[in-house]
TrEMBL record:
PANTHER family: AAA-ATPASE-LIKE DOMAIN-CONTAINING PROTEIN, CONSERVED PROTEIN, WITH A WEAK D-GALACTARATE DEHYDRATASE/ALTRONATE HYDROLASE DOMAIN. This is AAA-ATPase-like domain-containing protein. Residues 39-267 form the AAA-ATPase-like domain. The keyword Signal applies. Keywords: Signal. Residues 1-20 form the signal peptide.
Amino acid sequence: MKCTFNFFFLVIFIITAVNSQSVCNLESSDLADIVNTPCFIDKTLLLKEVLESPRVVLLTSPRRFGKSTNLSMIKRFFEVTVDDKGKEKKVNDTLNYNLFQRNNLKICGYPKFFSDQLGQYPVVLVDYKPLEKVTTFESMLEQFRHVLLHTFEEHIYLIENPKLWTDDFNKEQFLRFIHPTHNRHLKTAEIKTGLKHLLNLLFKHFKRKVMVLLDACDSYIETLLFQNNPDTEIIMAFVKSVNDVLLNAQEYVSKVVISGMLRVDHTVIGSASDNFSFLGDHSSSNYCGFNAIEVKSLIKRLKKSNYSEEYNKITEYHGGYRVMNRDISLYSTGSVLNYLCRDTKVSSFRRKNGYLNIFKYALNLSEISQIIQSLLAGKTVCVNVSKSFTTDNIATLNELMISGKVKSKEAVDLFLVYLYYLGYLSPEKDTVSAKGSVPVTVPNKEVHLELNSMLRK
């Protein structure tokens, strides 16, 4: 039977007051902070669909399309709530129960699912965002120590269970991951196997399998793409080895949900996965970012005047991301909220990384700039939007970025796929899904202005 995965994105933001004007605080992903704010969009039906998905799912979209907030929401719904001693609390007495029930969120419309699944799973959320700072193998180990410290800290209650500890992994070893001084001296082997030990402990403590959420799985890849780094291969191999342990521990893990920007294959991520890629022909694409109905709702809620004018302007600047084979156009979540909550002047809110000059240089290579100029003129180009990056593909892209030379047509094709994953390109209107290349265009004025500004005049 074919598995389907209806992925509903929950976008979470806080509205705060500054100088008597509402602004969006894009830093919080906590449902408790945002559920009653004007910018909250209820898409909690994601929760019902997660358990019907394949065991390992990779969800991709550009920055600021709601990936991290969704993983945070999944965690809050499914995770077991315990006291300081690790004893499970009665579900109906928990903050999580009240957040969903008292606010009558959509998932409450499925009472059996709600009662059967809320608070029933040990959940481990591993956030790879700190790996953005990787520059050497040693710096990668340092950042992994931070990742492990934060991950282990959330389960410190495990030290209260005397039945968990063995000669293979005792309480003192567990505390090494949490104590700041000892954490800094974790050895390479401890870093590599630490998460598997944590999964084992959770499995034994709760006597049920664990749900794993891995956020920003490719954060280190974006950094390495722009570096002439002799440690690149060993860094990627090490992260893959950690992922192998984390994602393939089927004796402890029931479900894995991974988020990232790039669609990567098992040679990179360490596990085969079902890819629900950005704007692909599957129902999960409907709920990446905002759709038109949600944008209209936000405009009304935020009491913007000139409703039609505002909607048309937002569509022109921040919409245009077309889902293949479906009559749906999406909007950049971060861009829409920045415009509605912070500023009445439309401009580019796209986040720029620290390697912008190298990116600009690659964009201006003659073989690439000609294609970009054609796209900016309103034409289309064919891109393999179903492409999953391999380690060899990443090496090819890295060589293009660093050498500043196009050595093959494959390198140009990969760069265009990379632009697609970053949100600079979108399937042309009425494009049907297909394996292989499809015509793409520049989606909106925000992207058009940014690409144009990076081309040499």
